[in-house]
Amino acid sequence: MAADEEHLLVQQLLPVLVLAAVVFLFGGGLLFLTSLVGPKLNPNDKRKLMPYECGVFGQETATTRVPVKYYLTAIIFILFDIEVVFMYPWALIYKEYLSTAGLFLLVEMLVFMAILIFGFIYVWRNRGLQWE
After folding, report:
1. What sign has the CA pseudo-torsion 30, 35, 37, 43?
2. Is the pTM here over 0.70, yes or no?
3. pLDDT, mean over the chain
4. Last residue of a domain, one of 18, 36, 63
5. Among the four residues 7, 27, 97, 123, which has the most C-beta atoms within 10 Å?
6. Contact partners, residue 50, CB within 8 Å, separation at least 6
7. End residue of a domain, out of 20, 41, 63
C-alpha cells in the first residue's frame, strides 16, 4: 500500500472509530451512572425478586410453562414475514431486468409464491393459526 492509500484509509475509518468510541463511552457511562444513582436491591424484599408484567405482580413462578402453540405461531409469523424480505428486492429489480430475464424472474417468483401459499393452506387446514 502506498502512503496516500494508507492516509485515505485512515481518513475514511477515523469517523467510524470515533463514533464507536463515543457509543461505547456513552453506553458504559450510562450503565455506571445508573448503578450509582439507581435504587439498590434489598435482598429481603421478595417483591423485587418476583416476575413483573404490565404493572401487576406475578402470581406464578418464573418457570411458568408456555404452550407450544405460542412458539408455532411465532415461527409461522417469522416465515411469512421473511417472504417480504425476498419479495422486496425482487420487486425493485424486476422492472430493470424486464427485457432480458423478465419471464424467468416472474416464473421464479410465482413458484416461490405458490410454495408459500401451499404452506399457508397447510397450516390453515391443520388449525395452526387457531388458539384453543
Report:
1. positive
2. no
3. 80
4. 63
5. 123
6. 57, 58
7. 63
